Each structure stands twice: as structure tokens, then as C-alpha cells.
Amino acid sequence: MIQESLSDKLLKLVFYLILAVFSIYCLIPFISVLASSFATEGEILKKGYTFFPKEFSLQAYKLIFENNTIFRAYGVTTFVTLVGTTLSMIFTSAMAYAISVKSVKYRNKIAFFVYFTMLFHGGLVASYLLISKYLGMKDSIWVLIIPSMISAWNMFLLRNFFATIDESLAESAKMDGANDAYILFRIILPVSLPALATIGLFYALGYWNNWFSALLYINDPHKFPLQYLIQRIMNNLDYVNQVSADVHIPNFIPPAITVRLATTIVTIGPIIFLYPFLQKYFVKGLMVGAVKG
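C-alpha cells predicted for Sugar ABC transporter permease (293 residues):
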């Protein structure tokens, strides 16, 4: 076992202190939003955001759950995230494996066409016309999934990881009569868990946080995803006043600011707990896919 010198220990201590300070710095805004969401609207207006609200209140959360708008948006976003991530992983894995196999003809040309899409884009108008007019997906739940199904960056990252896997695994399976689909799903994917967890987290975060697609293509309020609903709440105080009209309390101040804070807390809850379970795979998947690609 190699003994660490005093300078190495001091350097490691400095790094730990920097990481600790940076972590606290990142947590401060979240803690402030969480604490302020339980304050009254009057206290926020008078004293601003706080870490220790003196007047504890659940008015904002009661207002959010007054009707089923949030629950419906939760359902839409959950469906889009689960189905979208699953389909994205299937198609991305299939394409990444195809262009990682050296025996596949024209694999470099196919990879170039995919890479070309990372450099040049048809533009927002062309995309809107294609999706809404020619593909007929406007106001469909699938418009939140299909256009974002494959990311070129994620595909190349996964391809680089597949390229690090020993070719003898696939060759021995082929000698036993296995086809490419069997090799991919029964041999390659099980040993690619770090990369799959990394790419899956990327896709899940992308689907969960997507609101711009709903802004362009969704008009039906029953199909609004969660993040787009937040965006509407943030930019339209009439929503808060409209829902507050059903609350009959003397001297009641519509909790416009606290509703924004409470909505933020409610919506980030599920996805923020996903990262700790994937964190051990996250760094490993990135490093292996990037260094040996």
C-alpha cells in the first residue's frame, strides 16, 4: 500500500473542502425555495424569501391540489418520461450497436449522416411544418416523444462504450448460432449497465424537463406536461387568481409567489430522487465511453 505524503493529504483536504462549499452553495437556493413555499404570501411580500418562515402555511399546496390539474400534468409527464425513455433506449442501443460492429457495411457513412445532424439543423419553421403538417402529430401526446426519441450525442456515447467490449463475446455467440438481436439484448446490453444508466438518465431528464415541444404543438390542456404547466403558472398569475376564487377565506391574499415555489418543489421531487440510484453508474459510464471511444 502506497503511503500518501503530507502534501497529497493537504491537497485532498482542500479538494474536499471546495466540494463541500460548492455543494452547500448549490443547496442554498433549493432550501430557500422549499422553506419559503411553506411561508405565507404576506410574509414573502414583506420580508422576501426566507430559510425559517415565522408564519407556517400550507395555503400554496392546498391551492395546487385544489383541482386535478397538477395530477393530470403529472400523469402526462410520467407517461412521456417512462415510455419515451424506454423507446429511446431501445432505438439508441440498436443503432449504436449496428455502427459499432466492424462487419456492418457503410457503418462509417451512416455514422457521418448522424453526426451531420449535430452540426446542421433544418430550423424551427421546417421542424414545425414537418411535425404538425406532414406527420400530423400536432396536439398528440406522441409529439412529446417521437421527435426526441434519438439523440445523436447519446448514440455516439453509447457506441463508444460498445466499442470497448471484447469482440470475442459476440463472435463466440455467433459460433453457437446466435443472431444479432440475441447478441445485443442478451450479451452486449447486460455488460453495458453503466453506459445504459448514464444514457437513460440523460433521456429521462430530457423528457421530464421538456416544455418547449408542448408550447409549439399542444393546445389541449388535458395533454399539458408538468414543466409546461409550471411555465404557464410562472408567466400567468391569472391562473392563481382563477383557482383562488374557489377559496372563501376572509382577507385571503392569493398566494401567487408561494404557489410558484410550491409548484417547483412538487414537480422536481420524483426526478431528483432518481440520480442517487444511478450515480454510481453515471461517472463510470461517461469515463469509459469517452476515453476509449
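The two ends are 32 Å apart (CA to CA).
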